[in-house]
Amino acid sequence: MKILPMPRPVIPLANPDTQPFWDGCAREELLLQRCSVCHAYRHPPSPICPNCLSDQCEWIRASGRGTVYTFVVVRQALRRAWQDMVPYVVAVIELDEGPHFLTNLVDVSPEAVTIGMPVEVVFAELDGTTMLPLFRPLEAAGTKP
Amino acid sequence: MSSISGRYAIVGVGESDVGQQLGRTGMALHLEACKRALTDAGLQKGAVDGLLTRAASSVPQANYSAVLAGRLGIQPTYISDVALSGASSASMILTAVAALEAGFCTTVLCVNGDAQTARANRRGHVTSWIEDFESPFGMLGAPITYGLPARRHMYEYGTTSEQFGAIAVACRKHASLNPNATFRTPITLADHQASRLVVDPYRLLDICPLTDGAGAVIITSAERARDLAQPPVYVLGMGQQNTHSDVQYAPSMTTIAMRGASRQAYAMAKLGPKDIDVAELYDCFTSVVLVTLEDYGFCEKGEGGAFVEGGRIELGGELPVNTGGGLLSQAHASGFLHITEAATQMRGAAGARQVIGAETAIVSGQCGATGINACLILGKDAN
Predict the structure, then answer these.
(1) What is the mean pLDDT of residues B325-333?
(2) Of B349, B144, B172, whose CA–CA distance to A82 is shortest?
(3) With B227 labelled, which of A88, B10, B39, B88 sits at a CA distance of 20 to 30 A?
């Protein structure tokens, strides 16, 4: 079982559209944009709402909880730099607020992952400045609902 | 748009040699396919006044269609780079017919393919803005982006790895009958199940290998086609749809771009799934064929797994699929060999793998983890 496998060969680079998201991660907060007009949540960050095209939005701290929508287990590294990471789980989380979120599942054996499993966000430090939002089973935090 | 059904035809077909480590550039393979298509059509290169292509990733090049025109020594009145990954091949046919209809040109050469194993030639890659939300999580390639919806299909409909395997077995069986295929040794379902998990749920034999190869066709008006060397293969229907770019954010992972693209194509051709004799379906992964069969209307949503079992998609079955071997066993060529194979089947010239009496073929080109699809319906007759 892998616990927060780090470091990683790729770190995200913020741009003006995504800066608030990564700033939130640095504070260990998962932020989502919510449209100020139609109130739809959205992810990944975008300058306009894909529902009503408004450019007015608020950054809301999400619950950080959701369920596994689908996942794969990468058993063979697709790039050499990731060889030490395998096996790892790439998963799509359906956040409680609605949007889907691509991430890794950690603190869990790949064989134990199932679709529908309740999960929560956990932040992992990448390089001293960047925090990466990963997810783990709710049970792992001792907060089983 | 239905008025153009049957008014344009494929009159020349060319495939480059295919394989691995051929030691040739993507452009060399393109040129070989072009020459063979011209020879096949009985046309001089000067007759070509339209050129549609896409730069091979092994030889990145801006304005590639202009570069290729220079290498062919032609001065077309219409060129374009059609850069839609796996959907680019079928989209070239749509674009060719549109350009012909618009009067931009009279004879269009379409060519696509790559030298995927020529790694040393790779100089760079194009990234999407979304990469910051993918690469740090190790989402690094197509087996992952396609594996996510494959797993979801298994969850929603009970689809099994063995059903994916039936597709790999069919493609390999067909490749064994195709002299221009890379992988010709037949495999069994047991071989598929014994192959290692690469990106679970995908096993090695669910994934198309990197290969070198290219294909080309020449399209002109039906009227002009009647005077040329080969029996014309008519473009009866075409359609394209885009449902998503990044599969993780797609509204549905299992009902996808194939549906809208095929509905347009069927409507133009005035045909339905029951009228189709051969299907050449983009198969970068086995599961993609399965969902395409569903969304192209050959079975109900969720029944693709049962549909591919029992030899139904093999030669001699109800709907032979990927009769040339497909990306899984013939060569990748960005799906262009699905078009050359469909045209060859319509000519009745496919030799040992000919579907007897085949008069209609459907072709799928897709990319973007099933989010972009281009559908073609080709026919032996103009309808």
Answers:
(1) 98
(2) B144
(3) B88
In a domain, B130, yes or no: no
* Contact at CB, B137 and A76, closer than 8 angstroms: no
Q: Domain span at residue B94?
A: 2-120+208-379
Number of domains within chain B: 1
Three-state secondary-structure class, residue B220: strand
The pLDDT confidence band at residue A82, using thresholds 50, 70 and 90, is: confident
**Chain B interface mutation, best of A33, A67, A74, A132, highest count of B Cβ atoms under 10 Å:** A74
| A-chain residue closest to B147, CA distance | A72
Q: Could you please report the per-residue DSSP string of B270-326?
A: T--GGG--EEEE--SBHHHHHHHHHHTTSS-TT-HHHHTGGGTTSTTSSS-B-TT-H
pLDDT at residue B257 above 50? yes
Cβ-Cβ pairs closer than 8 A, A with B, add up to 90
What whole-number distance in Å separates Cα of residue A121 and Cα of residue A140?
Answer: 11
Determine the length of chain A: 145
- Asked if the C-beta of A69 comes within 8 angstroms of chain B's C-beta atoms, the answer is yes
The answer as to whether B62 is a domain residue is yes
Closest CA to B211 of B98, B336, B87, B49: B336
Lowest mean pLDDT among A62-66, A121-125, B175-179, B181-185: A121-125
B271 is written with which tokens?
A: 């045909």
Contact A51/B at CB under 8 A: no
Would B196 be classed as within a structural domain?
Answer: no
Q: What is the CATH number of the domain that holds B341?
A: 3.40.47.10
Average of per-residue pLDDT across B259-272: 96
Alpha-carbon torsion B52, B58, B62, B68, what sign? negative
Q: Are B244 and B19 in contact (CB under 8 A)?
A: no
> How far apart are the C-alpha atoms of B265 and A51, rounded to whole Å?
29
Bridge partner residues of B379 (DSSP) = B234, B360
B88-102 vs B336-347: helix axis angle to the nearest 10?
Answer: 70
Domain-located, residue B289 = yes
Predicted pLDDT at B93: 96
Q: Which residue intervals of B185-309 are DSSP H helices? A: 189-194, 222-225, 257-269, 286-295, 304-307
Q: Residue A110 corresponds to which amino acid?
A: P
Bridge pairing between strands A100-105 and A65-74 = unpaired
Pairing of strands B50-53, B107-115: parallel
